[in-house]
Amino acid sequence: MVHDKTTFSDTIRMERLHNVLRGKAKRSIMAIGLNGMFYATALKCLKKEFGNPNVVSHIKLNDLFNQPQIKEYDCNAIKHYHQKLKCTATWLASMGYHTSLYSIDNISKAVQLLPNSMRQSFYRFSKDLLETEVLSLIEFERWLDSKIKELFNPIPI
Question: How many Cα atoms within 13 Å fall on the side-chain side of residue 14?
Fold first, then answer.
């Protein structure tokens, strides 16, 4: 958000970057200092050290799968899970990681976190889907999005 603000100088960007970084990321650019003329250098350094898309994809998938089991009709947990799922599927698609998107193991892990009734509903849906299409995390996310709208809509259609 800061990087794309045309009204910010590189000095302001550099100060804000230093304020939001923690741990190894902050230590990796400490020697560069706060001078705005080194903002581009700091970004290149961070991208080189922490910008490996394989690592980011692995972290996103682990974050998605390492959540507690969602309880029946826990609206907030289901919506939160859907947001993480959408973010992860979008990231994988944008990076071209189709193997991860279409991995039966990943889809299975993602589905297992749902409450039993929703899991069973997805299995019925996927059985019909597999007759015409290939299953992916994107299809699972779309299905979950439709279920959220269906289950938690205060005005039934």
Answer: 18
| Helix (H), strand (E) at residue 80 | helix 75-95
In this structure, which amino acid lies at residue 22? R
**Contact 82/149 with Cβ under 8 angstroms?**
no
Q: How far apart are CA 116 and CA 149, in angstroms?
A: 18
Instruction: Supply φ then ψ for residue 35, to 5 degrees.
Output: -65, 125
- For the chain, 157 residues long, the average pLDDT of each consecutive 10-residue run is 77 90 88 89 83 80 94 91 94 89 95 96 88 88 93 71
Structure tokens at 71: 């309880």
pTM summary value: 0.67
For residue 73, CA distances in Å to 76, 85, 86, 115, 152 come to 9, 18, 20, 8, 9
Q: Which two tokens stand for residue 108?
A: 């299975």
Q: Which two structure tokens, joined as six digits, stand for 139?
A: 């299809």
